[in-house]
Amino acid sequence: MSELPNCPECGSVYTYEDAAMYVCPECGHEWGQGEAASTDDEGGEKPVHDANGNALRDGDSVTVIKDLKVKGSSSVVKVGTKVKNIRLVGGDHDIDCKIDGFGPMKLKSEFVKKV
């Protein structure tokens, strides 16, 4: 039995084949068998997901779900802080943004949720 790829949109492992297509029963995404299943449609990079598993894209707005200490400062980014117009970048801290009152900074996607 062949190993089926995970869904490129939501990462679900419950994909199945339908003729020449793969189908995800959880999010309804369909893609061709010749397409790269582990890459995002835009940049060929792995998709970035928030703490709830929602796919994030450039320009989205997110909310911080945990108090985050700002490195090199005694300041804290509080729970519920809304961050607008994020930009996705590679690396450990995969969100580049500008937070009012703090300025530009990088966040990990595991500490935010999509608005």
Automatic annotation (TrEMBL):
One Pfam family cited in the UniProt record for this chain: Zn_Ribbon_YjdM
Region of interest called Disordered, as start-end residue ranges on this chain: 33-56
Domain Protein YjdM N-terminal: 3-31
UniProt-listed InterPro entries: YjdM, YjdM_C, YjdM_N
Superkingdom classification of source: Bacteria
Domain Protein YjdM C-terminal intervals: 48-115
UniProt record similarity statement: Belongs to the YjdM family.
Name of protein: Alkylphosphonate utilization protein
Organism, scientific name: Billgrantia pellis
Taxonomic lineage of the native organism: Bacteria, Pseudomonadati, Pseudomonadota, Gammaproteobacteria, Oceanospirillales
